[in-house]
Amino acid sequence: MSQLLERRKPVYTATGSHAPDTSAAVSVHDLTVAYREQPVLWDVDLTIPSGTLTAIIGPNGAGKSTLLKSILGLIPVAAGTIDLFGKPAKDQRKLVGYVPQRGSVDWNFPTSALDVVTMGTYGQLGWIRRPGKQEREKALHCLEQVGMDAAADRQISQLSGGQQQRVFLARALVQDARIYFMDEPFVGVDAATERAIITLLQTLRDSGKTVVCVHHDLDSAPDYFDHAVLLNVRLMASGPMSDVFTAENLAKTYGGSLNVINLMQRLANNSQTEERDARRPA
Amino acid sequence: MPGVLHDLLFDYTLRNVALGSALLGIVSGVLGSFAVLRRQGLLGDTLSHAALPGICIAFILTGSRTPLVLLIGAGIAGWLGTLLLLRIVQDTKLSEDAALGIILSTFFGIGVVMLSLIQRTNNANQAGLDKYLFGQAAALVERNVITFALLGGPTLLLVLLLYKEFKLLSFDPEFAASLGFPARKLNVLLTSLVVVAVMIGLQTVGVVLMAAMIIGPGAAARQWTDRLSHMLVLAALFGAASGLTGAVSSVLDTALPTGPMIIMALTVIVAISILFAPRHGLVPEQLRIRRHRRTMFAGAGGD
Question: pTM of the prediction?
Answer without folding.
Answer: 0.87
